[in-house]
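ARCHIVE CARD
CATEGORY: sequence design from structure
SOURCE FIELD: tokenized fold
FIELD CONTENT:
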């Protein structure tokens, strides 16, 4: 009977150690899950900011293209027609010749 009690006591001590280890593992798992959740939240926030920046950049590029097109149209409307420019360019490049009419 004493031997059975000693074995029981030993088994209870082992069980208590196992419970303690399991509880510690549970606490560590909770900490790791919390860290993982925070990492996921940070990654999602980064993705959102990146997506917003991409949209803003695409919008800025589109606006810049529109502005360039307006400036080019305004410059074309303000400049003389291409034919007189071509004639002036020809006469400037060959000093002895006269432009044809």
């Amino acid at each position: 009977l004493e031997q059975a009690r000693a074995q029981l006591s030993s088994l209870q001590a082992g069980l208590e150690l196992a419970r303690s280890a399991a509880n510690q593992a549970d606490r560590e798992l909770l900490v790791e899950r919390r860290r993982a959740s925070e990492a996921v939240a940070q990654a999602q926030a980064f993705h959102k900011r990146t997506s917003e920046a991409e949209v803003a950049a695409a919008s800025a590029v589109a606006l810049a293209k529109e502005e360039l097109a307006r400036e080019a149209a305004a410059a074309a409307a303000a400049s003389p027609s291409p034919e007189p420019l071509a004639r002036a360019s020809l006469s400037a490049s060959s000093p002895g010749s006269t432009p044809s009419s």
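CARD ANNOTATION: Residues 2-88 form one domain. Residues 44 and 50 are 10 Å apart (CA to CA).
SHELF: design records, drawer C
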